Amino acid sequence: MSTTVISPSTSIGTETHYGEFCFFGKNVKIGCSCKVGHRVIIHEDTVIGDNVRIDDGAVIGKRPMEAANTAVTRQQELPSAVIGSGCIIGTNVVIYRGCEVGETVLIADLASVRENVTVGDFTIVGRGVTIENFCKIGRYVKLETNVYITAYSELEDRVFVAPGVVTSNDNFIGRTEERFKHFKGVTMKRGARVGVNATILPGLVINEDALVAAGALVTTDAPARKIVAGVPAKVFRDVPDEQLLKNQGWED
What we know:
- This protein is mainly beta.
- The chain contains no helices and 33 strands.
- It has a domain at 1-64 and 80-133: UDP N-Acetylglucosamine Acyltransferase, domain 1.
- A hairpin with a 4-residue loop joins strand 32 and strand 33 (234-238).
């Protein structure tokens, strides 16, 4: 007796294998040569590319919850979740409906990626990372363990964010109606880097090739190609020329 439930409208490509106690909802499309672990839930309309690995307990295409007093989750008809070819989705990862993941992306164990999020090709989303809703993550981005990317943020290509970094989008800290007019996440421009345990306040910009030092509290925009450090963060010195993105010899 089969322990996996597959909707009659689900399409599964050749050489794709799946484990026990899985659930594949209506109109799910899974590409060729995929490996799906045990107890994986793929909700309706989700599209999975070829050569995708999905580990045990992952949930893809989850619909968002909405609390009565939430500020950023809204009722809406979301498009299907899409996972590009060559991706690896770790154990107990949750990817929401309305999320689009590019090709050759790694989303490590216990990570959560919300609705209205795009993740670019070749990006690494580390263990326990949370990407909230209405975010855009570029190509070749690295988000290390337990990074928190707040809603309404944008990270451009080749951004690096070290473990334990947190961001915020609410200067009113959840009080007064005025806050609803001013929600704004953070922006990290191409090649920006943020050190371990740094905190970035709402609406700020970490400019091109800027480096935020470990433990910094960023209260103003970080200038391009400068190192900022301290509490609050101040310009410390220039980023060394050999560390600039243009000098790494990487292809776009």
